Amino acid sequence: ACVVESEPIGRALTLFGCMYNSTNYKLPATAAKECSAKLGFNYTAIDECASGPLGRGLHLRNGERFHAANPVAKTVP
């Protein structure tokens, strides 16, 4: 949520794609750190956002949007 909030969507999707294709995809923090270094993202800022009140608020907001979707969302894209 922090990356989507702070970066253009295309750039954010590049990071997510890298993380998904990482050998460490089951360890999101590890994949994010590796891909951030590879792609020029500030991992420290991402981690601080994600683990702080802003990240928790963004996560809550996105969860509320997901559950309010009509038609009902069955998966996360």
Any descriptors?
77 residues, mainly alpha
Short description:
Helix content is 71%, strand content 0%. The chain is mainly alpha-helical.
Overview of the structural elements:
The chain has 77 residues and is mainly α. It has one domain. Helix content is 71%, strand content 0%. It has five helices and no strands. It has helices at 2-6, 9-21, 28-39, 43-51, 53-68. The longest helix has 16 residues, at 53-68. The two termini are 14 Å apart. The mean pLDDT is 93.
**What is the first-to-last residue Cα distance?**
14 Å
Query: Unreliable segments (pLDDT under 50, ≥5 consecutive)?
Result: none
Strand-and-helix sequence, N→C?
A: HHHHH
Q: Gyration radius, to the nearest Å?
A: 13 Å
Structural class: mainly alpha
Mean pLDDT: 93
**Helix run count:** 5
Query: What percent of residues adopt helix (DSSP H or I)?
Result: over 70%
Q: Per the principal axes of the C-alpha atoms, what is the gross shape?
A: globular
Largest sheet: none
Q: Report the oligomer.
A: single chain
The tally of structural domains comes to 1
As a percent range, the share of strand residues is under 5%
Strand segment tally: 0
Question: Secondary-structure map with pairings?
Answer:
Elements: H1 2-6, H2 9-21, H3 28-39, H4 43-51, H5 53-68
Helix pairs in contact: 2-3, 4-5
